[in-house]
DNA sequence: CGTCTTTGACCCGCGC
DNA sequence: GCGCGGGTCAAAGACG
């Protein structure tokens, strides 16, 4: 395992890039911190073992980043006034967050301008409280006054007043931020609750509940596909429960779907049919057959069950349309593979038609039987672009680094699934979703669900607003959805269709600040795990196009809207910026584990 | 020695 | 029925 994990991420190469993990940052941008490279031989995936992701993350977080040049140690906090020269030492302490960028700048300027008279300048700026200041000034004030004259006193008092104001403002902002955060969480929870409720209703109403279907018994099994992964938050568990019901139904009721549904506990369980079964008998392969292969999963009507866990069997027709969504990430990278926080094992490589570059197949190895697969291939047109396509849901908890990808792709997948559902019913309504996800985007997205595998492509090659939703060129029916009136031209594929800055910036920034993570608090519930990949909350079956579908749309749209709401994010970004004092402040990384969410996401915003 | 990567072969579905 | 292409398997080799 030791090597394996390390090697996994790497694939065969040594320089994978990670867009979301702290490490990625290190690998790509030559971390200032020596620690960043500690990842071991492969830098990439986080160290080389399962904990790697988290460990690397921790490392990143733990290692106090060297104070960014921008922030000369800003010690505006009243408590620290005495330590003028020491300010930078505590640069990253919580207290310092209170300082506003303004204060930082002021101080910095003085420190530079004053040159050797550092003490003077610093004192003036840093001393917020009279007492502290006086203390420090005792040793220096005389010189100051001599040199500076009377003006220093007035300036000092002025600055003190300003600083106090700023502190107050910071406090207010923090309060606002916390309030917004709490509200957001509450809303999110409410949303999830609604979704669950809806799912339950559908399960009950939806038509055939096979006799053996017993809610109680559902727990252990998991839906490998789009279904929620057990590992996720409590919410996930609940959802999975709901799903599991459908799952059992499927197994007992509908034979054909076997491959799609896999019991984690019963890796070797027999439910599989056909020759494939033999192959899949190996623990790893078991889940594979059912979930990944388009040929299998998709072509079997039943396979759709995986897509819409909560659906009833009768909805097979509708489910058929609910094909597995794939989330493809396009990013420029010289590395053979991007590190997304998960551990992967390469199980195959093949030359794909129309592309001189081989396509590599990976499966998630973070947990036994994890159904998530991904394909990595370079773009034929531009080989600097690495295309990573994810499919399936993780059946295990994801490290923060992976959550970032999961969160990002979730929204995309949700939109796609919603669109596909609609399209299946002949009700294509991408606009709603697209707008929900990309309210502020001036770009457009192409949505198409007719293809065997609806695919959402997140194009990170056009940073900072790089996201693109697109359907595979090969896919037939395509819908181009103009956003915000902006219309970028033409081809649905890799053209300039860009998604909202939210996504784009988030990803882009993450690519830069590997340490930035979308906090699970923010995105987690939404994505559940998507392994970065698929939208977990199983959208209600398209069986009830108008209602369930609309509901699914609404949910996903609302979810996306919340996370993508420019106002929300802008406010948070502003608050964080003021607190942190800089977009590039490594401090942003700190929150990833803590899940105080907002900062992470915001960090990405401020990044630009 | 165990694990992972490589890679040819195989399976499957689809189109002709 | 045949060929093609996508996806996966599994033996052999590589690696630490």
Automatic annotation (TrEMBL):
GO cellular component: nucleus
Subcellular location: Nucleus
Coiled-coil ranges from the UniProt annotation: 156-183
Keyword Electron transport: no
Chain segments carrying region Disordered: 1-82, 129-153, 240-319, 526-551, 586-608
Biased amino acid composition, Polar residues: 21-38, 240-257
Biased composition (Basic and acidic residues): 270-282
Amino-acid biosynthesis listed as a keyword: no
Assigned keywords, A-Z: Coiled coil, DNA-binding, Nucleus, Transcription, Transcription regulation
The WRKY domain, residue ranges: 333-399
GO molecular function: DNA-binding transcription factor activity; sequence-specific DNA binding
Main location: nucleus
Low complexity bias: start-end ranges: 586-600
Protein name: WRKY domain-containing protein
Record organism: Acer saccharum
